[in-house]
Amino acid sequence: MNWLREPDGEPLPGYRLIEPIGTGGFGEVWKCVAPGGIHKAIKFVYGNLNALDGDDARAVQELKALERVKQVRHPFVVSIEQIQDVGGELVIVMELADRNLHECLVEYQGAGRPGIPRDILLGFLDDAAVGLDHLIEKHNLQHLDVKPRNLFMVADRVKVADFGLVKQLERSSSSGLMGGVTPIYAAPETFQNKISKHSDQYSLAIVYVELLTGKRPFAGKNIRQLALQHMSEPPDLTMLPEVDQPVVARALAKNPDERWPSCTAFIRALGGPRDATGSSGGTEAGSGVREPGAWAKVGRTVHDVELTPPAPARGGAVVMSGAPRPQSTPHEHPEIDEDHLLGVTATQKDLGVLRPTILIGVGSFGRRALQEIRCRLTDRVGDVVQVPCFRFLYVDCDPDAVTKAVSAPPDVALGTDEVFPVPLQPVTQYRRRQLDQILDWLPREKLYAIPRSLRAGGARSLGRLAFCDNYLRFVTRLRREFQIATHPESLAQSSDQTGLTVRGSVPQVYVFASASGGSGGMLVDLGYAVRRVLARVTPVDAPVTAFVYAAAPDDPNSTDAELANLYATITELNHFSDPEVSFTAQYGGHEGPKVESRGLPFTSTYLMPMSERSAGSFRDCLSHLAGYVSHDMTTPLGPVLEQLRTRPVGFDRSPFRSFGTYGVWFPRGLLLRAAAQKICIRLLKEWKVDADPADPTPVQHVVGHAVNDPRLKPDAVRAQIEQEAVRGPDGGPGDQIERWLSGLEAQLGGSVRRPDAAAWSRAVWEQARDLIGTRPMGEQDSSVRRSRTSKMLEEAVKRLAEMWGNEFAEVVRPLEEYPGRRLGAISVALKKLAAASSEWANAADARAQQLAVKARQAKSDVQSAHDVCQAGSGTFSFFGGRSGRSMRHFLDQVRVFAHVRLQEDLADAVAKFYRALRARIEDRARELAYCRTRMELLVDVMESPLANLPPSSDTPVALSEEALQQTLRPTNTLNVVLPAGETHIERSAKKIVASVKSEDVLRLEVALQKLVLEPRGGLTALCQMNADMGRTLVAPMVEQTTAFLSDLLPVTDVTEVEVSTSRARKVDMSARIKDYHERSAPACGSEAGAQTFVLVPETESGSAFAAMVKKSVPAATTISVNGAATDLMFCREHGNLMPAEVAAILSACQPAYYEALATTQTSPHSRFDVTEWLPLSE
């Protein structure tokens, strides 16, 4: 679909777009002019109805919702005028509203009030409640996305709109209910993929609290925290007047059945005095506003009340026609102290920091940079996978790129889908295609020097060759990444996950590469490729920032190849930054795209040299980079830095910049995740243990209910087998036997000549054996003949046992919902059921043995009668009576035998059923053992995530590649603070786990069952899925446990820690601040060219620390960061370096560069069609 729309466009004939109104979880809305000059709203739904790749989900869901609501006609529901399918894109024309209640709230807050005045708000929400109740009472529909932005004002009345999540109660499914829903206002049952007729009332209650006070009853910052709070924590209603608190608390009940009967009942309970039953009265309301007299009627539905009377809020005291005007009485509601509310509620300002961001790592350094940044972002925003506007892309020509990318702890490892290999090919592959084009810029001797390992091996020209060969693939992949990152739905989900406000939809790109390695040869071409794709994705000039690792040029241990490559990379970047120099390149053969451009593709290019070539310096370099970029992406520092980067570059300046950082960091997010990981391991071990549960009551109840089921009694089982054996028009075994016997009776009683006794008896006996079979007469008799009836019964037993096996599986499944030994409880129950099945089978065998004795006797009697018929055959009887009597006697014996044999077969089938049922139970037990094995493997991986990772030959080692449990020591760039002065994150996490009480663990298990296991089908279903349990089970468990622990572990304000530590150590705070300022000095450039920023928490102690910073470093600019007060950072931004400063960095590289430049084979440049490079000294 087309996500880029412009004013004056006509998506539908005659409908001209004017301006965008807003975006939501399902689409974007524009104001338009319809035929006749009438203003309308037109909504474009995300997704395409004709898509084959799953992109149609939003459009299909919206279309289904519209099919349900298009018949709704109500004055308080926004009318839908057209629904059009335009090339697969769903376009909806609707009534245009004046504004929504969120905009109304902002206006009141801008005027200095905490929210909308109560009397006005009650009138607004009364309209909304009537509209919502109309949906549920008349159409059995729930809106499921009630929020201020979906309640629109038209001519001073409120209408409900945006029906993307509307569902019918009887058709509600567990698939995709939470997709698009706003978690801030979602009812608890929706997190379990369930809805009720009171779900919208819950959302309306949160809307009331927010619009009245400017604050919400649940303070979660992301989906996990909100889900946990909605499910298990009471709402914070202290900001409401006391008289409102019980009314709102009832509407926010966790159990839907405990809420108000309707939305209208809830709102009108707020509007008048309540009696003991909670009904509304008709006397004067709070704040001096009189309520309509009709509100005093109890038991009337919303449809019995006129919809046209003015609401109690809009014009003072107005009563309905025919109702007496209530007398003035003393105020039942106390006046709301708005000054008090203003003292605790700040105006909600949309200071956005979140924007679509593509992070591209090139080569080994780029991979390590991405991993380190991912680690920091995980601490700040949680699971980065749940933030789709942040896209990671690792580009490398190393054949082991994928293996190295995933070889890290789970919280920092890149996913395989985030790796984009650009492999080198054997020389023979280039001979067959594009050889002439390649030789235009790459000498033949360089091409033929490709090693058999297909690694660049430090040759920058081979790094460029790998990228050029994969240019078209890269551009296609990058375009897709931009589409995902900039999609409004991605931004909405990212905002919900992080709790950060969206800053804009224009993307930004970070590129991380090393100037000293072979993969760095693709840096310039990659930059122009990014710029080319950006030009097609967005008309706005988007920033592209490059961070170039400059190794350690002044260290004697640096190799000549590294120094030469470093000098060549900086020379090339400087060369193409000249506006008079044109960059040209052609990719994909002579018919491929040709790129021509002027000026460096990067908005800013940062150089990051090290003081020495050591693992510690490399860690410091990565720490600088990760702290700088993560704060740039998630704090108000980002907009400030962007303004500095976009300033014009002076003629006396180079295109290169520098920065430095020093941070004090309480890694609360990582610490909570480490503790959550340990708790999850402990829970998984407990869940999988094969032992009796601590509380045997649930098992006893389940087993007792199952074994006492009257349907499992022998007679009932026999009846079920007989019924199950009925297949087709022939009926069951009993029917077939009776029909056969009736036919024989007809043969003997017919008027025609009777058959020969011997021949007839032989035929009947053969038919009996075929139909009802025979059993051995004794130990010496081995003759067994399976009959048609026995085959029918065996098939019936199989089907019935399978059915009961499935029913038993469902009977014991609830045991996995109980906290503790979940699999152990099921295992115990299955063992008891298997033992009961064995007892039933033994009893059935005894009954079958009794019938077997009767069957043998009956068979003997039939054989005797048969012998008589055979002996009397051929003898003459004048009246024929002797032959007839023998045949009649034989038939009577056959009838007895058939009935006894049927009873025997049925008794035997009952015994077989019980044994088959036991076999099914044992199959379930084996499935349980399989689940236990998978969980054991999962626990092993969680306990030692790096144990089975392949060893990496890369040096030096990045911090992000080490286990998070290793000691975090202060470095030259970072001071790590842990609770209680701890220095080891492993020990600190263990202390947190030890502090969690058993009742807290119990609450956590209940929350995990409701929010993680139940929506995914349960624990055993998850274990039996053919999927990665790390993603399907562990990831959501850790996320939800982290959110749970977040409420238990108090937030540590790092500024308080800093001040208290300084006082304890008797260190002057001013001197400490100056020391941090010095430590944050940029790696290159003069002190005079740097501008200092200090990020402090937006707390009282943060403000005090900022004041101390201003005294100690007057030139510093402090920036308050809203959110978790877990880190502060000194950042020194150096503008564009002087050419002399760049030359000073590279002075040690010149000899190695010019020596390598002497021959083509050793030249460090990435391309050879440029014969003269601009010197750095100019």
TrEMBL record:
SUPFAM superfamilies noted in UniProt: Protein kinase-like (PK-like)
Gene3D superfamilies found in the cross-reference section: Transferase(Phosphotransferase) domain 1
UniProt KW keywords: ATP-binding, Kinase, Nucleotide-binding, Serine/threonine-protein kinase, Transferase
Record domain Protein kinase: where: 15-271
One Pfam family hit: Pkinase
GO molecular function: ATP binding; protein serine/threonine kinase activity
Recorded superkingdom: Bacteria
Signal peptide: none
Record protein name field: Protein kinase domain-containing protein
